[in-house]
Structure formats: C-alpha cells, structure tokens
Write a structure and sequence with these properties.
5-stranded antiparallel β-sheet; alpha+beta
C-alpha cells in the first residue's frame, strides 16, 4: 500500500514538473527570502535571461513590487489565496515588460518555510494595441474638435454620446448639457 502511495505521489510530481516546464506563461517557485527554487524556460525567455543568471537575482530585482516583505504584507491584508496585479518586469536589457502577475503562497505542514508560486503573462502586445487605439482616438478627437462642420454621435435610441465644438455652436448648446438632450429634440429645435 505504501508503494502505491509513493508511486501516485511520484506520478503527480512528474505531471507537475512537466506542466511547469512546458507552461505557456512564465512560472517560478521562490522562497520567502526571495531565493529562486525553480524557474521555467518560458520565464527565462520572456525576460531574456538564461536560467542561471535569473536564479542569481531576486524577484525584487525584476520589480520593486515583488519585494517579499511587501508581498507578505499584501498577503496578510487581503487574506486571499492568491495575489494578482499588472506590473512591469525588468528584462535583461533593462526594458520594462508589462505583465499580469499571479502569486500563490504555499506551505508544507512539516516545514515552517512558505514558498511562492509565481506566474507571469507578457501583455506587452495588448498594451501596445491599447496605446495605438488611444492615440488613434486622440487624433480623431483632435480632428473632430477643429473641423468647421458640426458632428454629433448618437446611439440608435437617440442618446447623444459626443458632440464637437462646431455642433455646440450651431445649436447654441452649453457643453455640459448636451447629454441631457435627445437627438430628435435637437433636430426639431425643441431642446431649449
């Protein structure tokens, strides 16, 4: 019976190691003092380090938010099974890589030492797309604000969502009141 228990435990450990090493996100285990126990290849690749070089650093060197004392405080304040936040990790070229980071703390009953399971997902492409979308919006808004034609954006139900300065001047409508006017009332001239 003891042999089957050890066999099941060994099989479970092998599956964890396989999943850890082939995970599409960066993963690592580190001690409470910040010493790395294990780092998967994806995290090394994401940050541009080889395993040895990364293991010589602490999580806090990747981001000040990963200071183990600070993590411990957040853990105690939130009293949740895990922590998750967006932050930038510093790669080997000293560039900031935006990531979603998840941390779970585990402890073994026979040991007083706790460990952190660290997961990081590189979201730099998403952040770049959001920035481009924001820039396109700002550019479009600039054009709308400086064009001589009155432009109004309304929902199908007639709720005015945006109105440019030229349209405000045309309808002699104060800027802070346009959201209270229905588009049909504006067209009929019964808004005032």
């Amino acid at each position: 019976r003891q042999t089957s228990t050890y066999s099941a435990l060994d099989e479970s450990q092998q599956r964890f190691i396989s999943a850890f090493n082939t995970a599409p996100q960066g993963m690592a285990l580190f001690k409470q003092n910040g010493e790395w126990i294990s780092i998967n290849p994806t995290l090394c690749e994401m940050l541009g380090y080889d395993n040895y070089t990364l293991s010589q650093q602490t999580p806090a060197t990747l981001s000040h938010q990963l200071n183990t004392y600070r993590l411990e405080q957040q853990w105690q304040e939130r009293q949740q099974s895990s922590l998750q936040f967006e932050l930038c990790l510093t790669n080997s070229k000293a560039e900031a890589i935006p990531c979603i980071v998840s941390l779970s703390r585990i402890s073994h009953p026979s040991s007083e030492q706790s460990y952190w399971i660290f997961q990081a997902i590189d979201i730099s492409r998403r952040v770049l797309a959001e920035n481009r979308l924001h820039d396109a919006f700002e550019y479009t808004q600039y054009i709308l604000n400086h064009i001589d034609d009155g432009i109004i954006s309304a929902s199908l139900s007639g709720t005015i969502r945006s109105i440019n300065p030229a349209a405000l001047r045309l309808w002699e409508l104060p800027e802070d009141e346009f959201r209270e006017v229905h588009f049909a009332a504006l067209l009929r001239g019964s808004h005032s």
